[in-house]
Amino acid sequence: ESDIPRLPYLRAIVKETFRLHPAAPLLLPHKCEQDVEINGYVIPRNAQILINAWAIGRDSSTWSDPELFTPERFIAKETDFKGQHFELIPFGAGRRICPGIPLASRMVHLMVATLVHNFDWELDGGRKPEQVDMDERFGITMQKSIPLKAVPIKLQTF
């Protein structure tokens, strides 16, 4: 866990995963307490507001090639997913940000690092990565339309 700050590519992979495949496509609803105008749009009092984290992560005005999984985009950027940068908000932002971010962040980084460190990986049936269908099915949480099966291969110790 203490090595995670010294693993910029791992951190970039996690950020890119949160950007392209947020666990929940829509953040929790908010209720507008008074009429407000934002960028020329009037939001009436008592309106239910849903933030589309999935669409924000795929916005071509913010991200170049938004449909591509490109962790390198985060190597030289200080973009964080802890509510400071609104182009990446898988856990929300502001006063209603998810209180579990510190635990979730540590656990995801630790799990990915452990899996990558201890195993080699191959796709089921010898498929190549570009042959994998990455389409998603919308719901309360995001799921792949066709489940992905990756096969762990124990690394040989020398």
From TrEMBL:
The keyword Transmembrane helix applies. It comes from the Eukaryota. Its cofactor is heme. Heme binds at residue 98. It is a single-pass membrane protein. PROSITE patterns: CYTOCHROME_P450 (PS00086). Keywords: Heme, Iron, Membrane, Metal-binding, Monooxygenase, Oxidoreductase, Transmembrane, Transmembrane helix. GO terms for cellular component: membrane. It is found in: Membrane. Signal peptide: none annotated. Pfam families: p450. Its main location: membrane. GO terms for molecular function: heme binding; iron ion binding; monooxygenase activity; oxidoreductase activity, acting on paired donors, with incorporation or reduction of molecular oxygen. Belongs to the cytochrome P450 family. PANTHER family: CYTOCHROME P450, FAMILY 76, SUBFAMILY C, POLYPEPTIDE 5-RELATED, GERANIOL 8-HYDROXYLASE-LIKE. This is Ripening-related P-450 enzyme-like. It comes from Dorcoceras hygrometricum.
